[in-house]
Amino acid sequence: MFKGIFNKKNKQSQPEELLQEVMTSVEAAEKATEKEEVTETAPIPETADLQTETSPAVVSEAQVPAEEEEKKGFFARLREGLGKTRTAIADKVDAVLFSLGKIDEDLYEELEEALVMSDIGAETSAYIIELLKERAKSRGISEAPALKGLLREIVAEILGAQDTELHLDTKPAVIMVIGVNGVGKTTSIGKLAHYYKSQGKQVILAAGDTFRAAAIDQLEIWAERAGVSIVKHQEGSDPSAVVYDSIQAAKARGADIVICDTAGRLHNKKNLMEELKKTARVAERETGGKVAEVLLVLDASTGQNALVQAREFARAAGITGVILTKLDGTAKGGVILALSREQGIGVKFIGVGEQMDDLRPFEPEAFAEALFPEEA
User: What is the pairing mode between strands 229-232 and 49-50?
Assistant: First the structure.
């Protein structure tokens, strides 16, 4: 029953030095200064603290024709948010294409170096260049600037090769959100709740990170901002008990989605992974099916370290997709290509700003166009 969610094979972990590097980058990014301490889990309380949600959002007819305008507005924010990444990738590519002029091996080598230096990674960069050579030859392209359109096409294909859709077919659909501290996990949960409530869905948040000081309070603030319910227990209680009560509350109220926060300890902590497995088993038992989505939150600004985190979590947890945050504040957004190509993980939501509406479903074509705009 549980094999579809978590891989039970204990594969060899990354070297200790690499994991230490990840820990250092994450701790530097984390704003909270509270010291974490694992507390023994408490027995399942008889009652849960369930806050009352305001009336579900109703989608009016006026909102429907406005969707296109909203989409255009987000595309503009996407282009703006990718400014640093575009400078790191597209500007370097332009410099090569327009300085060398003719298409030859020297140009391809310069292009590959530009991609590698943009956090796309050596393996994915080499793959892109090989495709670029094949398509340029088959289509009879002889002018270097024309390669930019091919790059945009290849980038969109790489990103679109993975599943980028959220599948919330059950009711309630359970979404588990995992990730190390400091990547924007709690913020992403709040924005995700806002996104689905704005679509008329009834959402309940499960405060399953019971180990970190202030984690419950932080999630409660986001629940208030999004106007959704939250189920919480005391700090140090059993996370799976919180999830159990959240699902029961969702069933009783006819809620559509339960979004579960989880402890954010590093991926090499065995007790965390065991807790995640236990929580998923409870969710499966209570819903009669598998967890709808297991989303890993990654901070784009950590570059290749985000790739390391994805690799380690994928070995222990059946990740169904990624939420990539902080794209607007980094030049390292090229890691999104390596995630798709090398890890086979689809990006499902991206964050390109601090506003409530700045976490949106990922669209490969729009991302590629924002990265390599036609008019540039």
Answer: antiparallel
